[in-house]
Amino acid sequence: MHRYFTDQRHETLRHRVRDFAECEVRPRIAEMEASRSVCHDLSRLIARQGWIGATVHRAYGGMGAGHVAKTLIIEELSRVSAAMGAMVQASQLGVAKIVHFGSEEQRKTWLPAIASGDCLPTIAVTEPQSGGHVLGMESTAVRDGDDYILNGRKIYVGNSHVGDLHGVVVRTGEGSKGLSAFLVESDSPGFRVGEQKPAMGLHGFSFGELFFDNCRVPAANLLGREGDGLSVAYSSSVLYGRPNLTAVSLGIHQAVLDETTKFCAERQRYGKPLADLSNIKLKLGRIQSRLLLARLSAYHAVHLLDQGMPCDAELMNAKLVNVESALESAQDSMDIHAACGLFTDRPVERFLRDAHHIFAPAGTSDIQLLRLGELALGQAKGEWSSRLAELLRLDPAEWPDEEDTSDPEEASATVPGQRTGPSAGRRSWFAPFRVSDRS
Asked: To which H or E segment does residue 273 belong?
């Protein structure tokens, strides 16, 4: 029986991602942990699987598989490596701005490249002085003929050091209507990436600084209209950022349970497995209970997204519940492991470090509670899931048939003006992982 709003195709996709994660990601964890730097080749390898295009319409070369599929992809990667799950979630967050606000020409140009893995997108909003207060940003864009000139600095940008296309929100005027969003290619004159700084967790993932020094961007790269920047930032955060980070937390949480139960079955105390002790069973029971509730909240929220139904509250709650419960369970696991959990030969300390990285992005727990309180009081200013429902609803016609296993090499492009990658005849997204996918 399929649970959590998935069907056979979802579960087959889950097994494909799981096989890939075990074969290709797990062997590289030790290297990523030791270097504490971005893993470029693995990021590209994952992108070439086509999973960044989970919510991209098949007309643009994407999977057209929806938000439930996107969630399980991120969850399964995060179960093995939260860093690589974070890489995928940040890229898919970068997709949102183009899907929601991109012109047809921008979609034709960029979505096929993203779906094929030839372009990794980001979204850059946060600044050093204003933090999560979007309206406090100071970076600017000034019109100059057929271009805009960007100046400023962005921080905590997911995929900063592997991104090819940055969705940058800057100030073009005063107040809430004075923010605009632009697509900035990584080779644009006047653009540079800051030095990567070692972080507590998510080793292998990059979330660094972007600098714009008289960076010239074509006016055609404006997303939507001038003044749409706040909408680009908020909608991307609510509809993609929160569920994506929820999925990372969920993967970490599952890994915590798996590793802790394994440890308790193997570790001996008083001549018996640690798992035979009642106090240990109680802690394991709490982890299991939290995980069941967390998974239900996560998949219910994205199921509503796929149905095109209002679900801002469910998305906020899913992020709150998953982040908090993953942190609590990781701490319980550390308690069970005791001194054993302090050494890096066991992954439990990595789980706790990685889980802390998911707390702040797309709103801390206090922000989620504040917004939920406003919804309860009827003070919310509309729901993004309602405003963009038509773009979020999963069209059943999008789902490929299981026998759709055409060779991508034989595919012909159907989207004029695309930069790269096949758009039609793509091998079915739930087909088993193949050795040839690694090249």
From this structure: strand 272-273
